[in-house]
Amino acid sequence: MAERDGWSAIKDSRAGSYHPGVEDDLTSRLYDVAWRVTPRLPGPIAALVFDSVAAGMRWSGAGGVRQLRVNLAQVLGQAADSPAVTAAAARGVHSYLRYWREFFGLAGWSRDRIRDAVVFESLDRVAAARDAGRGVMLALPHSGNWDLAGAALVLSGHRFTTVAERLRPERLYQRFVSHRAALGIEVLPADETRRAVTTLTRRLRAGEVVCLVADRDTSAAGIGVRFCGAPTTFPAGPAQLALRTGAALLPASLWYDGPRLRIRIHPEIVPGQDGATRARVAAMTQKLADVFTGAVRRHPHDWHVLQPVWPDPRRS
What we know:
The structure is a single chain. The chain is an alpha/beta fold. The protein has a single domain, classed as Glycerol-3-phosphate (1)-acyltransferase (3-Layer(aba) Sandwich). 49% of the residues lie in helices and 16% in strands. The chain has helices spanning 7-11, 22-37, 43-60, 65-76, 83-105, 111-117, 124-131, 146-155, 170-182, 193-205, 237-245, 277-298, and strands at residues 118-121, 136-140, 160-164, 185-189, 209-213, 223-227, 230-234, 248-257, 260-265. The strands form two sheets. It has a seven-stranded mixed β-sheet, with helices on both faces. A two-stranded antiparallel ribbon has the order 6-7. Strand 6 and strand 7 (230-234) form a beta hairpin. The protein starts with 6 loop residues before the first helix and ends in an 18-residue tail after the last helix.
């Protein structure tokens, strides 16, 4: 169910042949049903439905649950079959389905409900940078609910631009774009690389906000970092954009706290003054990985990454 967001998608958007089929049509129809039905369900009923789906995923290991266990084993520094990882993965699947329940239900949420559901910490860092005439490059991991966070950020006076993979079929992608546009979020297609980079640069130079999910690199041009104690790569985009435009690179972390979503805006990652651009981008990206490491380890069950993050040592 997860779509690929962020700069990594820009760097890795290679259009290939596409042949629509029965599976695409079924997927699109399932999304349509979820969008239509979820906002109409009473809260407890919606929670029961999505928790039931989560329980089925846990039982079957489907939908990337096995990979989630592998990822959480690295985060926690324990074996994938350890009690701690088992417990975190179980909570993680339900947190992941909570994200989708809220995502599909957001169309029926009032502004007051969105505001009441989100607690910001240090949002003044965004305002301070913009008041100084600078753009803001918010970089965040796949944690909590980034769509709900985005809706709340817009209601706080900070409209923003982001990038998302062009899903197939096209009708499904347009539904995602329309859904987010209704929340005040501008979405650029990842496969239109030049347009996306140009637009993001323009927005930041104009003192606006850009948000990119930045904890998973799917390109061949990522920056090598240590994340949760092991080497991997992160997308270079957030640091590159900040360095190019003078925008403030602000990491954000998200997690669920009972019925609410908490969003912490961390201090700015300031670029070094010396060295080549690539080295400065690398240093900034490692600092971003350090912030994400702390955030993910504090709330591992709310980190929703069901795809490989670290290279498989057996293939090294």
